[in-house]
Q: What sequence folds into this?
């Protein structure tokens, strides 16, 4: 089993013990079993301490109870007294939150080792390339470069970057991400690598986008158009508001009719801590507005003032929204 898998199992076991200790009258045999479990290794004791620290935060209890009541309507509970009460569901919600809190990791070490340049949460960085082109790295982004007399190539390892390319017909500029290869001569465009897709938005000029796996024919994408690559397959270019898609360059988030859950996902990229969104009942509510990405916490406050949301801090740099 991997190290991350072992940690996850230990945390799950620790949560089970915390629930039993907080909600049950333990027999002497149960108490001995807990002490024996905790004594197995320092990692067991550490996992229990970490879980306890998060679990005992009063804000977690309030958020978990609220979320459980939303997902367990009273009418349903009353019709079937044998169903688990919302209190048990609250414990389940709290357990899920604790796992999320403890599983959060920053930009992984291997990606940083591969990168020539990278940014952390909330950081933007402009890099002048050897050919006098420039690239701006958005939050939590990493790139690796390959430049010589015949090649101008960037590998987008993670995140999102804006490229302003100096024209050189003899050396096309190539940006590769997980599934996508983007070829440009002299243009301005944004490439974003996400978990489930790559996305290329052209601000000015024309680029050629193709699947690195060669599944589809290349697409020529002009200014004001965007193309997405999903599961190695290239979609059709779609007209977009390129200024909105690249507004992060100026530190702004511009949304027009975007679901609330998607907006929170976007803010999550810029926040130095962890945002956990529990009120999925309003996740599809549409949001329109312009927000300052340099102050992600204020964006959360604005959203809570506009929509029926509570925002609370938990366990240092953890934000619950419910």
A:
């Amino acid at each position: 089993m991997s190290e991350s898998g072992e940690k996850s199992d230990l945390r799950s076991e620790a949560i089970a013990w915390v629930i039993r200790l907080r909600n049950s009258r333990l027999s002497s045999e149960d108490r001995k079993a807990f002490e024996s479990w905790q004594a197995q290794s320092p990692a067991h004791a550490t996992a229990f301490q970490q879980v306890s620290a998060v679990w005992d935060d009063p804000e977690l209890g309030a958020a978990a109870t609220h979320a459980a009541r939303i997902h367990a309507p009273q009418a349903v509970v009353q019709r079937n007294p044998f169903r688990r009460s919302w209190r048990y569901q609250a414990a389940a919600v709290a357990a899920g939150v604790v796992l999320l809190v403890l599983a959060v990791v920053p930009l992984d070490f291997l990606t940083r080792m591969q990168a020539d340049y990278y940014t952390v949460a909330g950081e933007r960085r402009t890099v002048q390339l050897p050919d006098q082109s420039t690239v701006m790295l958005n939050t939590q982004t990493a790139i690796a470069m390959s430049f010589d007399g015949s090649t101008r190539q960037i590998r987008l390892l993670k995140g999102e970057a804006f490229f302003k390319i100096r024209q050189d017909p003899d050396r096309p500029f190539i940006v590769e991400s997980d599934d996508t290869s983007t070829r440009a001569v002299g243009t301005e465009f944004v490439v974003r690598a996400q978990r489930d897709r790559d996305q290329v938005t052209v601000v000015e000029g024309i680029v050629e986008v193709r699947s690195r796996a060669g599944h589809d024919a290349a697409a020529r994408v002009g200014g004001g158009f965007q193309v997405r690559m999903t599961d190695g397959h290239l979609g059709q270019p779609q007209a977009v508001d390129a200024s909105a898609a690249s507004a992060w360059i100026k530190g702004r988030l511009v949304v027009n009719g975007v679901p609330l859950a998607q907006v929170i996902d976007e803010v999550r990229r810029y926040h130095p801590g962890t945002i956990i969104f529990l009120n999925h009942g309003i996740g599809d509510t549409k949001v329109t507005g312009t927000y300052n990405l340099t102050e992600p916490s204020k964006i959360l406050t604005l959203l809570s003032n506009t929509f029926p949301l509570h925002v609370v801090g938990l366990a240092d740099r953890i934000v619950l929204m419910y």
